[in-house]
Amino acid sequence: xxxxxxxxxxxxxxxxxxxxxxxxxxxxxxxxxxxxxxxxxxxxxxxxxxxxxxxxxxxxxxxxxxxxxxxxxxxxxxxxxxxxxxxxxxxxxxxxxxxxxxxxxxxxxxxxxxxxxxxxxxxxxxxxxxxxxxxxxxxxxxxxxxx
Length: 147
What we know:
The protein is mainly α. It has one domain (about 1-145). Helices cover about 60% and strands about 5% of the residues. It has helices at about 35-45, 50-60, 65-75, 80-85, 85-105, 110-120, 120-135, 135-140; strands at about 1-5, 10-15, 20, 30. Strands 1-4 form a two-stranded antiparallel sheet. The longest helix has 21 residues, at about 85-105.
């Protein structure tokens, strides 16, 4: 299976009919579909530690509201029960991999990734992973279809 590895609002265009088109496939590669679902949930629920940013974008920055949005995403994707049970760990894994990837590309001298790293994006991803861990009880019911 080919995965995008970067399905996020900044890589989507809303069509006139209300649908979305995903753009920017520069990181696409073979991968587990759960990787794309995990990244999508992180970006679109969103599962950010910066709750002020969540409120700014979505209006309701509560953990409960993020859990409802997470449940809606998972419900639309409709993974099997086994995949649902491994979603939160997959989200945390993808956050850590994102941070490490930014660090690696910045260290290789890629100016775009150096700028992202310098602006704290890798640290933010790690804070997001800690936030998911800290709120696991509230978030864990959503992938199972319980909100």
